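Issue 218. Parser rejects a valid record. Input:
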Amino acid sequence: MLQQTILTFITKGEIDLPIFTHENVHNATQKEIWDWYNSPGAFRRIMPEWEGIRPINAGALRDDEETIFKVSLGPIKQKWIARHHSVIEGESFADRMIKGPFGAWNHHHKFIPGEGGVTTVSDNVEYRLPFHILTGWSAGFTVLPRMRQMFHYRSTKVTKDLKRIQETSDKPRQKVLVSGSTGMIGLQLCAFLEAAGHDVYRLMRRTTKLPPDVNSSKVIRWDDLAGEILEGDMNGFDTVIHLAGAGIGDKRWSKKRKKLIRDSRVIPTENLSKLLVSLDSPPKKLLCSSAVGFYGNRGTEVIDENSEPGNDFLASICSEWEKASKPATEGGINVIHMRTGIVVSPLGGALAKLLFPAMMGAGGPVGGGKQMQSWISLDDEVYAIHHLMMNESCQGAYNLSAPNPVSQKQFAKVLGKVLRRPAFMPLPGFVLKLMFGEMGQKLVLEGQDVRPTRLLESGYEFTHTDLEACLRNCLGRIKLKK
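Output the parser choked on:
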């Protein structure tokens, strides 16, 4: 993939308006590029993780369709409405800001075919800052750095997605049902599956709110604790992906919270397994979420899928969680358990909680910092799930974690480097226990050195094996040439 950024100016009346131009070359055909951009999941896939964008409507690539979202400008969320125009099917389209933070924004996208099956994506943005006559001079250090990071992220995301899609292009597209589709992983997984051409439905509880940009006709409602289908039909799906469960690190652990953490995983998984095997047309495969907490606190011991489970609270929950899918296995469904590590993204999870103290220079080692942290990028979490879904030979347990775990001290040091903040101020373990109780002990002061042995043996290639590269990508801190 080749990328190039150019800044020129055009004149309208008495004001020179800057034109931001970005080009990148993809190893994909013009049709493959167009189909990706025109998929329902493309907008969620292309939005930078660090920007905190909230999609409201993702318009199809047709004239007068609108894409609407909220974007952060410091502490303020502002609505951005972009209307498509000048659409040439399969070749180009443009969107003009109707409402938003800029004085003007008109973005032209062109997909230019080349020899050997490559395609150049050309982004040409004419923009005007608010009060441009007074503020235009500041673009070099206010707007352009952010735009360069954004377009680099966008083009890299397209490249990575297309590579994964091409790897399975010879296999039929699937009809997929996803639970937990409104969580950080579920939102991005569904978006990628849609961009890859799969027919995606969401399995949701009655009270769960559907994101506004999601097709409401592709929803099945159920009572997860009673095991009853309330709306829709579960027959005819190729794969079911079960991600639902109450957040482990969202609140301090009381007896009530620990029960919710357990019951929101074990009971729905058992109920779902029983429902699936009772269907006239059950799925071939069930992918169930689990966690590296399955192994318990193991110090510096190197762990893979053949290692014994632990015996603490999280390990016992993970063991029950995985055993709850036994009815599906006995009914002939191929069950896969995905033991996920720390998913690294500012969209949620551990990193979202660490960012503020790290930005304040308080992101040093915790409790000595020797505890190992097994991490995985959000991209690799999504791509690994797709890999397991599409690979017919995959079955059993897989560790979804990068091949290079780090100590908590190393994690803090790398995060500080990426953010350009000091990361040496230690936080004693007893302080964390006072603040968060047992949750702080289990999630921060303990850890595992987990390796994805079976995932690698199945042929999966990681996008991010280096923590610094992963953090720079998801935080918009890539070192770019100007």
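Fixed in the parser; the record now loads. The domain at 3-166 is CATH 3.30.530.20 (Alpha-D-Glucose-1,6-Bisphosphate; Chain A, domain 4).
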